[in-house]
Amino acid sequence: MSIVRIGLIQASNDLHGDEPVEAHKRLAIEKHIGLVREATAKGAQIISLQEIFYGPYFCAEQQTKWYAAAEEIPHGPTTKLFQELAAELGVVIVLPMYEREGIATYYNTAAVIDADGTYLGKYRKHHIPHVAAGGGTGGFWEKYYFKPGNLGYPVFDTAYAKIGVYICYDRHFPEGARALGLNGAEIVFNPSATVAGTSEYLWKLEQPAHAVANGYYVAAINRVGVEAPWNMGEFYGQSYLVDPRGAISAIGSRDKDEVVIGEMDKELIREVRDVWQFYRDRRPETYHHIVSL
Question: I need a labelling partner for 36 at 20 to 30 A (CA). Which of 9, 82, 107, 223 fits?
Fold first, then answer.
């Protein structure tokens, strides 16, 4: 199968952050199930949701309340629910959630579910920001909520393509993007929650660069809207699919809930890699010092 249809889901959060955690989860899960069904009806075979899809970007504040949003993966109820949905629809789902391991260890994670409902594994976000937001109030206080990922850079061999995951802030670090390519990724999904400012300029710069440097597709997903009570800035959407030549082949709007559909062509990956032999010509024996600087 050379052509694979990709579905990217961007959505706003519909509740005020002061509402109970379970109210956020219930409403957002219901909403995203509908959007997954819409993406499938439009022909999507691999579908990705946005970073921690089932609520607001709560890292704008530091409150123990949000620990209650975390679930075990894959044994929690949300993973199981979307396993059933994937099997029903015959689609692969990239499912970004807040993960709890053991009693109280937390990660920013994405589960990968195959088209028959099989749980294939998970990626844990490696690079954890802890900075003030560019406007409004609040910030990206992620070290309060997440430990750095410790599962490496896995690639999942799904029914339709070999996929990797890199989450939000990870995209600023080319090393992991290269590792995913070396591990065999044909497409890398980057579910995000990022607001206007410097980020928006980099949004369409860094990820096409990763696609070109590594000869794969990148699917970038960002939520939309302004989330109260923090009002830390506008989540500017513009979810997109970029090909190995750096061309954006599908892109969403800035400000509305949307299912973005694009096509990846595996033959284009082969064609690009045959012309630009970056993996052949790289010199790993000369790079060792960068990890000790």
Answer: 107
Active-site residue flag, 59: no
| 25 among known catalytic residues | no
Among 95, 129, 140, 138, smallest CA distance to 230 is for 138
User: In the predicted model, what is the mean pLDDT of residues 218-228?
Assistant: 98
Catalytic one of 31, 122, 125, 234: 125
- Find out whether 155 and 112 touch, Cβ atoms under 8 Å: no
Q: Is 80 a residue of the active site?
A: no
pTM of the model: 0.97
Q: Choose the catalytic residue: 51, 99, 227, 258.
A: 51
Give the separation between CA 230 and CA 279, rounded to whole angstroms: 44
Reported as a pLDDT band with limits 50, 70 and 90, residue 135 is low
For 56-113, how does the pLDDT look when each residue is reduced to its tens digit (9 = 90+)? 999 999 999 999 999 999 999 999 999 999 999 999 999 999 999 999 999 999 999 9
The structure tokens listed for 42 are: 């439009």
What type of residue sits at position 170? D
Q: Which domains does the chain have, with CATH numbers?
A: 3-291 (3.60.110.10)
Residue 43's closest CA among 254, 261, 205, 189?
261
Amino acid at 103: I
- Note the pLDDT tens digit of each residue in 236-273: 999 999 999 999 999 999 999 999 999 999 999 999 99
Beta carbons of 31 and 11 less than 8 angstroms apart: yes
CA atoms within 13 A on the CB side of 45: 14
Q: Which of 31, 61, 122, 168 is catalytic?
A: 168
